[in-house]
Amino acid sequence: MPSAEDRHPHLSEPRPEGTVRVDLHMHTMWSGDATTTPDELVTALEESEIDVLCVTDHATINGAVKLQGELPCRVVVGQEVKTNQGELIGLFLVERLPIGLTAIDAAKNIREQGGLVYVPHPFDPMRSCMKPEAIDALTAEGLLDAFEVFNAKVSLPSLNRQAAEFASDHGIAAGSGSDAHEPSAIGAAYVEMPDFTDAPSFLAGLTAGRVVGHTYDMPRRWRPRVVPSTKAL
C-alpha cells in the first residue's frame, strides 16, 4: 500500500507551531458499516500523524470510549446520530444519543452533555444529510456549533463549496473530516487548528483553524475479523 503521504500529499506540508491536526468525522468497526480495527487505526495514525481523532461511529460511543488512551493520538468521543431529519454529529459526549429524535432535540441533548453540535456532509443527497429546513432551524435556535465544509467522501466538490459558503455566511465554525470507513482514508481531511483542552477551547480553536483535505473514497477491503456487536449500544 502507498504511504500515507503518497495517498494524502498535504500530510507532508509543515504545520505551524502550536497547532494540531484534527479529523472531526470518522468511523471504526463499532459503526457496523466500517472495517477499521484498533490495530489498523494505530498504524494509520502513526503514518498520518493526526493528533486528534473525533471517533463518530453510527449509533454508539462504545468504540470511542474504549479507544481513549489506546491510540497514538487524543480521542474525542463523538457519535453520528440519525435524527428524523437527517444525520447529526455530537462531539465531547458522555452518553449515547438515541436515534429518531428531531434535529432540535438531538442538538439540545448534545448541548446538555456539554458537547458540540456538528453537521456532517450538509448538502450531499447521496447521504442521510440534514434537511435544509432542519439546518435553518438549528441555526435560528443558536444550536449549531460547527459545519462540515470539507468531507473527503462527498459526492460532488460543489457540495463542499456550498457548505463552506453557508458556514461563512452564518458565522459558523468550519470543520473537516475524512469520514473514513477504512484505515487508508485517515489523513484525507482534517482541520489544522490551535491546541485545546476542552469543548469550548476546541470550538474557539476551530474558528481559527485551516481546513485541509482532498477527495478520497477507496472501496472498503472486507476480510474476516472479529468485530464487536453493533447491537450492544
Automatic annotation (TrEMBL):
It comes from the Bacteria. Residues 22-85 form the Polymerase/histidinol phosphatase N-terminal domain. Gene3D superfamilies: Metal-dependent hydrolases. SMART domains: POLIIIAc (SM00481). InterPro entries: PHP_dom, PHP_domain, Pol/His_phosphatase_N, Pol/histidinol_Pase-like. Pfam families: PHP, PHP_C. GO terms for molecular function: 5'-3' DNA exonuclease activity; 5'-3' RNA exonuclease activity. This is Polymerase/histidinol phosphatase N-terminal domain-containing protein. The lineage of its organism: Bacteria, Bacillati, Actinomycetota, Acidimicrobiia, Acidimicrobiales.
